[in-house]
Amino acid sequence: LGTTITISSNHWIMAWTGLEINTLAILPLISKSHHPRAIEAATKYFLTQAAASALVLFSSMTNAWHTGQWDITQLTHPTSSLILTSAIAMKLGLVPFHFWFPEVLQGSPLTTGLLLSTIMKLPPITLLYMTSPSLNPTLLTTLAILSTALGGWMGLNQTQVRKILAFSSISHLGWMAVIIIYNPKLTLLNFYLYAMMTATIFLTLNTIKVLKLSTLMTAWTKVPALNAMLLLTLLSLAGLPPLTGFLPKWLIIQELTKQDMAPAATLISLLSLLSLFFYLRLAYCTTITLPPHTTNHMKQWRTNKSTSITIAILTTMSVMLLPISPMILTIV
């Protein structure tokens, strides 16, 4: 409901209402387990989102004060657009407001983590989409490049799968932010494909009950076919050419080059190699290598062997959508 209200509103107060409903709705899901880590994650999430929502209200009121407009598309005052960009960056977890996101994701169950990484990102991205003509290109490009760099850099030394996926999300948000001013539709395309691939990974990990790299190494014995597909989905999320994940990166680099932003395109492409490194490490742990030593944790011998048609469809789409890219190009 919160997402729908924000997406369909053209008045700032309604957009703010939708964001607040979303925040309050996800809090019980994060803190459901009553584990201290989950309670801490819920508290961090609430404080960050409340601060960001207050900034959204502040920027819209400043804009209304100067222009007399409460319409979302009429964000013409420069100070308001700067404050709004900061607020949305905080909502999304873009650098330098990214500190809360890995911690919150680490304290949440996998299914809630999936909601946080996909559905909860849609309303802020929609607000950016609607206000994109009046945003500051330099600020957004800086935030995007920093997010791609830091998302890749900080994901390198993680052993917790949820934290790795959180930094992967920050890195992908950098790609979305860099293009939103020049071609907002590409941002939405990138978001949809990212959401689809992330959903595949979270649902697969939830099926094989994996939360850290050491358990991922022993998971291939239980469901080998699912693990092989997880390997392909991870490589797709990394953006390797024959797979779906390459499509948004390819189009974004092409659009940035058309806009005379070849240096930014080169930089963001090189920085995505950092992310590729930890995706490859995940892929290696999934199927390619055997664990080098005996693991100390208890083997999970009772596993859910039931196959899910949802995971099958999502995996197929996450890996094989590249051939239809000409059709997507004509739509975009």
TrEMBL record:
<keyword id="KW-0520">NAD</keyword>
<feature type="transmembrane region" description="Helical">
    <location>
        <begin position="189"/>
        <end position="211"/>
    </location>
</feature>
<keyword id="KW-1278">Translocase</keyword>
<keyword id="KW-0679">Respiratory chain</keyword>
<keyword id="KW-0999">Mitochondrion inner membrane</keyword>
<dbReference type="GO" id="GO:0008137">
    <property type="term" value="F:NADH dehydrogenase (ubiquinone) activity"/>
</dbReference>
<keyword id="KW-0496">Mitochondrion</keyword>
<feature type="transmembrane region" description="Helical">
    <location>
        <begin position="261"/>
        <end position="280"/>
    </location>
</feature>
<feature type="transmembrane region" description="Helical">
    <location>
        <begin position="42"/>
        <end position="61"/>
    </location>
</feature>
<feature type="transmembrane region" description="Helical">
    <location>
        <begin position="138"/>
        <end position="157"/>
    </location>
</feature>
<keyword id="KW-0472">Membrane</keyword>
<feature type="domain" description="NADH dehydrogenase subunit 2 C-terminal">
    <location>
        <begin position="276"/>
        <end position="329"/>
    </location>
</feature>
<comment type="function">
    <text>Core subunit of the mitochondrial membrane respiratory chain NADH dehydrogenase (Complex I) which catalyzes electron transfer from NADH through the respiratory chain, using ubiquinone as an electron acceptor. Essential for the catalytic activity and assembly of complex I.</text>
</comment>
<feature type="transmembrane region" description="Helical">
    <location>
        <begin position="223"/>
        <end position="241"/>
    </location>
</feature>
<keyword id="KW-0812">Transmembrane</keyword>
<feature type="domain" description="NADH:quinone oxidoreductase/Mrp antiporter transmembrane">
    <location>
        <begin position="9"/>
        <end position="274"/>
    </location>
</feature>
<feature type="transmembrane region" description="Helical">
    <location>
        <begin position="308"/>
        <end position="329"/>
    </location>
</feature>
<keyword id="KW-0830">Ubiquinone</keyword>
<dbReference type="InterPro" id="IPR010933">
    <property type="entry name" value="NADH_DH_su2_C"/>
</dbReference>
<keyword id="KW-1133">Transmembrane helix</keyword>
<dbReference type="GO" id="GO:0005743">
    <property type="term" value="C:mitochondrial inner membrane"/>
</dbReference>
<feature type="transmembrane region" description="Helical">
    <location>
        <begin position="164"/>
        <end position="183"/>
    </location>
</feature>
<keyword id="KW-0249">Electron transport</keyword>
<dbReference type="Pfam" id="PF00361">
    <property type="entry name" value="Proton_antipo_M"/>
</dbReference>
<feature type="transmembrane region" description="Helical">
    <location>
        <begin position="12"/>
        <end position="30"/>
    </location>
</feature>
<keyword id="KW-0813">Transport</keyword>
<dbReference type="InterPro" id="IPR050175">
    <property type="entry name" value="Complex_I_Subunit_2"/>
</dbReference>
<dbReference type="InterPro" id="IPR001750">
    <property type="entry name" value="ND/Mrp_TM"/>
</dbReference>
<dbReference type="InterPro" id="IPR003917">
    <property type="entry name" value="NADH_UbQ_OxRdtase_chain2"/>
</dbReference>
<dbReference type="Pfam" id="PF06444">
    <property type="entry name" value="NADH_dehy_S2_C"/>
</dbReference>
<protein>
    <recommendedName>
        <fullName>NADH-ubiquinone oxidoreductase chain 2</fullName>
        <ecNumber>7.1.1.2</ecNumber>
    </recommendedName>
</protein>
<dbReference type="GO" id="GO:0006120">
    <property type="term" value="P:mitochondrial electron transport, NADH to ubiquinone"/>
</dbReference>
<feature type="transmembrane region" description="Helical">
    <location>
        <begin position="81"/>
        <end position="101"/>
    </location>
</feature>
<comment type="similarity">
    <text>Belongs to the complex I subunit 2 family.</text>
</comment>
